[in-house]
């Protein structure tokens, strides 16, 4: 009775391969369907394959900080610029230092490439400055006093609304001429006492104010050259300055910076559930919250436009919300934001403050021609290598090569669909090193099949039939495959952590394909081998099955050998009995 029970346990040990095959088939269909649903049927390409823009930034010494250009500040700037650019959804933006005072930014072609270039171009520090005066962006005619428009014209911040007054200098009703009113919302907080100084300005202060007013009157924000003159490289945060709105339809006199960009702990674009409109939420650090409470307490007591504060980045006002009450801790900027404009402003607030100022030294358009040629050469090499692997499998493993080829096809489908979806999901971009990683993965995957096939052959050489050999070989092969893939994945993970730039693409692809190798071997190769072992072509040891016992030098079947041994031990001579 023990033998039948053992036989039933062995059958049960073979499991139900149909379930594993159904599972991987469902996964493949889901991934392919998700790829078409996301409208991302091809992987995103990196700058070396798709082309793009390469920007070289040079750090500039700041007033009063001669030693500011150091490795720590450069690394911090790289981190912030990278987060700012990648915060826009740009795929594989590459930011790295070069030398002591240069940063190289590579932006591949993509849907947000233009916006990323604008973000990289505005790399100065971020400040919150009280608004003193605001006027239309064009120069004030000589002898005519500068106008102070209503707050709706004070800023052409992204995502604001109201009617456009004539003083903006833009056509009414056009997108460029829409006026602006940013409302700052937050919970009420007690207003601190902030008495205004009534001291008489000194002659030096009067002269500086007159010079600033003259510069303000001559400032032309309607041209790019005029906007470049606003602010200036040598303006200290503690000094008043002039600035242009980011669209050039308004210009400002701004007071000394009240809050630094480094005082903002985070910002994000969300939808106001009550109004159904996009808003920007800001959070401040503990120190920043106190500063913000103090300045909003003062501004809330002022009249327009002195109750506004400008969010100034690189001499450009990206938003100028008005304040009606004392605020602290966190705040909301609301208006007729679109999703894109709200996300842009949140990105500036979150990642706009840099420890250094930079200037664009060069901007170069990178062609993908060379990368395309290299990709073609790499794909040809990969195809030749794959063809040689298949020829070897067919010549050496014969019928078993069918399982290996099908497994390679399944692995290729999973790899391709995941790369396409990861490009949409996390911004993964395929570059030349990543292609190399995928080619190397062919050998890793084929090695797993060879390990399993050789274990099966070893069992057949011991005299076992195919179905028991398939099941007995699996635990031994499984351990070897898992150890081998673990080492490969560990190497890929370490390489990804300790390297930067394109080498990470190689490491990421190698790690991804290693994980897929485990899934394919467990959910496809093993179940298919179990099913084919039940077919006469394989189970009978056909010469073209790759499992011919004679060719493998197998011993006589174990069952027959045991029977013969048992028979020889039974005494046949009555005398011996």
Q: Helices and strands in order, then pairings?
A:
Layout: H1 2-13, H2 17-37, E1 44-45, H3 47-50, E2 52-60, H4 71-86, E3 94-98, E4 102-108, H5 113-121, E5 126-136, E6 183-185, H6 203-218, H7 224-229, E7 241-245, E8 250-254, E9 259-260, E10 264-271, E11 278-284, H8 286-299, E12 309-313, E13 316-319, E14 330-337, H9 339-351, E15 357-366, H10 369-397, H11 400-425, E16 429-430, H12 432-461, H13 466-498, H14 503-532, H15 536-539, H16 549-552, H17 558-568
Parallel strand pairs: 1-16, 7-13
Antiparallel strand pairs: 2-4, 2-15, 3-4, 5-8, 5-9, 5-12, 6-14, 7-8, 10-11, 11-14, 12-13
Give an overview in words.
With 577 residues, this protein is an alpha+beta fold. It is 48% helix and 16% strand. The chain is built from 17 helices and 16 strands. The strands form 4 sheets. Strands 5-8-7-13-12 form a 5-stranded mixed barrel. A 4-stranded antiparallel β-sheet has the order 3-4-2-15. Helix 11 (400-425) runs antiparallel to helix 14 (503-532) and helix 12 packs antiparallel against helix 13 (466-498). The longest helix is centred in the last third of the chain and has 33 residues, at 466-498. The protein is elongated. Mean pLDDT is 74; it is low at 1-13, 143-198 and 560-577.
